[in-house]
Amino acid sequence: GAGVSQTPSNKVTEKGKYVELRCDPISGHTALYWYRQSLGQGPEFLIYFQGTGAADDSGLPNDRFFAVRPEGSVSTLKIQRTERGDSAVYLCASSLMGGTAYGYTFGSGTRLTVV
Amino acid sequence: QKEVEQNSGPLSVPEGAIASLNCTYSDRGSQSFFWYRQYSGKSPELIMSIYSNGDKEDGRFTAQLNKASQYVSLLIRDSQPSDSATYLCAVDNSGGSNYKLTFGKGTLLTVNP
């Protein structure tokens, strides 16, 4: 596609529920990143995929968070047993190759609200 | 903990003035530096990148880098009301993880007509 697409744009869920957030990167981009942005903060790194594999998942806050990219294109961020502290905007970015020198293109984000 | 510090603002300038945004970083090994613009309710948009000491100009924007002082700045000349946004400074991480960016909290810029 022309840009990074994220769905849904907004998600409201109850505490304890499971949610999935989807990211469709720019066609041909092998690198995909998930970031989380809380109110008044800059984006924080969660996970980086190169192709199908998670090259670095050191930013995932705990084992309730998991992400997959089974075919090297679309990625899904999964959050189990959601907590109110998970409320944030989840941003996906992609780049042609790994490495910041190629620049990130962010999607429009998914605003997650846990009530 | 690798940190990127920005003055949260708000920074208010009149239309036509020069806006100066500053950023310091703690990771001395960082090699890539970026400025993103984020309008309220929107996602960050890359506007400048800089990798070498000195100045880099692109239209009304100039990025300045001083690695010895661990300092990055963004100048916006002839500021327009449409430049009103939060400006995020981002720095890569040394030690092999050059795909990971650390962002500052951002500086809110308001350009008054």
Describe the 3D structure:
The complex is a heterodimer of chains A (115) and B (113). With 115 residues, chain A is mostly beta strands. Chain A has strands at residues 5-7, 10-13, 19-24, 31-37, 44-50, 53-56, 65-68, 75-79, 88-95, 105-106, 110-114. In chain A, the strands form two sheets. In chain A, strands 2, 4, 5, 6, 9, 10 and 11 form a seven-stranded mixed beta sheet that branches. In chain A, strands 1-3-8-7 form a four-stranded antiparallel beta sheet, with no helix packed on it. The model of chain A has no long low-confidence stretch (mean pLDDT 93). Chain B is mostly beta strands. Helix content of chain B is 0%, strand content 53%. In chain B, strands 2, 4, 5, 9, 10 and 11 form a six-stranded mixed beta sheet that branches. The model of chain B has no long low-confidence stretch (mean pLDDT 93). The A-B interface holds A 31, 33, 40-45, 48, 55-56, 59, 89, 91, 98-101, 103-109 and B 4, 8, 32, 34, 42-46, 49, 51, 88, 90, 92, 97-106.
Q: Helices and strands in order, then pairings?
A:
The complex is a heterodimer of chains A (115) and B (113).
Chain A: E1 5-7, E2 10-13, E3 19-24, E4 31-37, E5 44-50, E6 53-56, E7 65-68, E8 75-79, E9 88-95, E10 105-106, E11 110-114
Parallel strand pairs in A: 2-11
Antiparallel strand pairs in A: 1-3, 3-8, 4-5, 4-9, 5-6, 7-8, 9-10, 9-11
Chain B: E1 4-6, E2 11-14, E3 19-25, E4 33-38, E5 45-50, E6 54-58, E7 61-66, E8 71-76, E9 85-92, E10 101-103, E11 107-112
Parallel strand pairs in B: 2-11
Antiparallel strand pairs in B: 1-3, 3-8, 4-5, 4-9, 6-7, 7-8, 9-10, 9-11
